[in-house]
Amino acid sequence: MSDFIGALPVNGKWSVYNNAPNDEYNPDGKKLVLKIPVESVAAYAQYLMTLADDTSKHKEVKIWDFDAKELKSHKCINVSHNAKDGKTDDDGWYGSIAPKALTPPAAEGCPMPPAPQGCPMPGTLQGSNDNDIPF
User: Fold this and answer.
1) What are the two backbone dihedrals, phi and then psi, of residue 129, each rounded to the nearest 5 degrees?
2) I need a labelling partner for 109 at 20 to 30 A (CA). Which of 70, 99, 115, 125 fits?
């Protein structure tokens, strides 16, 4: 039995495709496509934010700055997903987007526990007139 607990309600998929010869930006190059199920978008964003909040996950990475036309160093998080060679299908390289659930890091000097995730906002305020501004 696996102890894996996923961060997403529904796993996504990523694929690398060959660009068309007439591609506007990268003819005959490659294109990475992420396919995130709509019901997993908020959970994936929360997964990324949890990584960003954990300074032990930060690494200095040189990234191309298109405006300055040079490499610049930035603090980054590393998000990786396993890959498979798609020789038997038309996807090329592909893999699942199924990150492991993370526990948000404790805030230093903050006695409050982390806020609950996914607090829904009411669609309407009780007793309100549709023309009223609720603040």
Assistant:
1) -90, 140
2) 99
